[in-house]
């Protein structure tokens, strides 16, 4: 079962060739045990929605996402 904490990220992978990956930050928890659904703030649309992660989604810790973002910045700076 998926578990999250406030500040973690929901990542939804595109399931078709031209579909992009969506990233949204978990902004609150509805259940103390970290189970879904999650109110998520989406980076691409600046919208907040209630998310029940499906099979194309996974949760990434805030620390993991920070490392990924820093690596992406480093890669573009080269």
Mean pLDDT, as a whole number? Answer: 91
The CATH topology comes to SH3 type barrels
Which outline best applies? globular
Task: Give the biggest beta sheet.
Answer: 5 strands, antiparallel
CATH architecture: Roll
Strand order of the largest sheet: 4-3-2-1-5
Question: What is the quaternary state of this protein?
Answer: single chain
What would you say about this model in short?
This protein has 78 residues and is α+β, with helices and mostly antiparallel strands. Helix content is 21%, strand content 28%.
Q: What is the element layout, followed by pairings?
A:
Blueprint lengths: L8 E4 L9 E5 L11 E5 L5 E4 L5 E4 L1 H16 L1
Antiparallel strand pairs: 1-2, 1-5, 2-3, 3-4
InterPro entries: DUF1918
Question: Which short descriptors sum up this protein?
Answer:
78 residues, alpha+beta, SH3 type barrels, 5-stranded antiparallel sheet, 1 helix
Tell me what you see in this structure:
The protein is of the alpha+beta class and 78 residues long. The chain has one domain: Roll (SH3 type barrels). Helices cover 21% and strands 28% of the residues. It contains 1 helix and 5 strands, in the order βββββα. It has one helix at residues 62-77; strands at 9-12, 22-26, 38-42, 48-51, 57-60. A 5-stranded antiparallel sheet has the order 4-3-2-1-5. A hairpin with a 5-residue loop joins strand 3 and strand 4 (48-51). The radius of gyration is 13 Å and the shape is globular. The mean pLDDT is 91.
């Amino acid at each position: 079962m998926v578990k999250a904490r406030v500040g973690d990220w929901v990542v939804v992978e595109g399931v078709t060739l031209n579909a992009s990956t969506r990233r949204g930050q978990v902004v609150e928890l509805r259940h103390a045990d970290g189970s879904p659904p999650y109110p998520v703030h989406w980076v691409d649309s600046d919208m907040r929605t209630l998310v029940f992660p499906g099979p194309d989604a996974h949760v990434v810790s805030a620390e993991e996402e920070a490392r990924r973002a820093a690596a992406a910045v480093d890669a573009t700076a080269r």
